[in-house]
Amino acid sequence: MFRSLRRTLGALCAAAAVLVLPLAGGAPSAAAAEAAAGAGYWHTNGRQILDANNQSVRIAGINWFGFETANHVPHGLWSRDYKSMIDQIRSLGYNTLRIPYSDDILKPGTMPDSLNFDGKNTDLRGLTSLQVLDKMVAHAGRSGLKIILDRHRPDSAGQSALWYTSTVPESTWIANLKALATRYKGDSTVIGIDLHNEPHDPACWGCGDTSKDWRLAAERAGNAVLAANPDLLVLVEGVQSYNGVSGWWGGNLMGVADHPVRLDVPNRLVYSAHDYATSVAQQSWFSDPNFPTNMPGVWDRYWGYIFKQNIAPVWVGEFGTTLQATVDQRWLAALVTYLRSTSTYGNDSFHWTFWSWNPNSGDTGGILKDDWQTVDTVKDGYLTSIKAPGFPPGGGSGDPGGPGDPGGGTPACAAVYTVSSDWGGGFNAEVKVTNSGTTALKSWKVTWTWSGSQKVTNMWNASYTQSGATVTATNAAHNGALAAGASATLGFGGTPGGGGVPSVSCTAT
């Protein structure tokens, strides 16, 4: 509750600068998880989410907000380059981005505000907000992150209890959902759409009033999304109150037991709950004498039963806290335990995206500190046990960028060097490495030689050495293994600018 306050504070900052039901065969261990799990579009099977190869996956990610505010772009890009942000998210072990947006960004000509182009974000100059989102999706895919789009607000003015307002009718909501589903069709970086953020009173679940019944509205919108792209996951949040029992906005899924969401395409539905600590608002369970041992029972009642009864996957799309109060620290520790550690349960677990990456969320803070660079290692550390393996890069738009398989199953790779920005005194570039053979790669190494005096100043998604004008870059731990046709991208900054594009050789093992 009181969620509009948190979003308002975030926007102001921007403007200023239990039973366990195991599936047959038991839960896989993290060590047994396939490194390449996550390929293609995803679908559901009971309480699990499976990739295109029917391997189980776990969403273990983070929210990065801003598109839903008057900035019409993720916050923090006044300070850093979007690619370095995405790469840092990936390097910390998060595998999914939930990106909130408002319908404003789908209006023709909506432009982002508070973007820094001084050696940063130079490829975003002149782009609309929707085109910036395209760029983010493309780089996230190259980095091995999946994306869930979150219709967070009808417009940038604030949240709404219902999925429509007097100025943004249901027809606009559904048309825009269909437009996004169509826009990213074929790019499996975008795996799903969260239909509407935090429905709350007077929204109801199963009451039958089409002007208030969120379950019926979710069916209408979800089926429209699937008509546009039947491969997407449809993520449906709860409401605030059901049969007189109230909780967090979007966090009450008690009605699913009697009134499940019905979609035309099977195995696409994921239920989503939100849960918060006292830094957001007080709830009765925080003052229970048995706190925090009472919390698993609370979560079971509101949304956990859906997972435990094998009805559908459950994704905790938002949870967060400033961690300043002891009660909040105990709450987060209990919730992390409840969500099931990856080392014990593998991907047979609850899914989650933490709120938030941004430090300027007024009542939770973020994983980043106020400088938009330094990681809050204490907060991030709470999440370590529920982080999960990353996904293969490439999305749905891989470009081989080089010669084909030389034959005989010999490991082979090709590399393409691209300058993404050049401001004279320096430049940013990236090298895309593609497995051009038929044999999976264990590792790769690329080498190039500049004709001028360029030097690497920093590099991400690879380690490097430089001798004179020759640079050798070797894969990072998370992106060395590449299936046939898959790609990985390293990025780097260098100085001075004005250099040409060198030839790059690639060696694979």
UniProtKB/TrEMBL annotation:
Membrane-crossing residue ranges in chain numbering: none
Residues in the signal sequence: 1-32
Skewed-composition ranges (Gly residues): 393-410
SUPFAM superfamilies given in the database record: (Trans)glycosidases, Carbohydrate-binding domain
Region annotation (Disordered) ranges: 389-410
Gene3D superfamilies: 2.60.40.290, Glycosidases
EC number(s) recorded for this UniProt protein: 3.2.1.4
Iron-sulfur keyword on record: no
Domain CBM2: 406-509
Statement: the UniProt record of this protein carries the keyword Ligase: no
Keywords: Carbohydrate metabolism, Cellulose degradation, Glycosidase, Hydrolase, Polysaccharide degradation, Signal
Catalytic function, reaction form: Endohydrolysis of (1->4)-beta-D-glucosidic linkages in cellulose, lichenin and cereal beta-D-glucans
Protein family membership: Belongs to the glycosyl hydrolase 5 (cellulase A) family.
Protein name (Swiss-Prot/TrEMBL): Endoglucanase
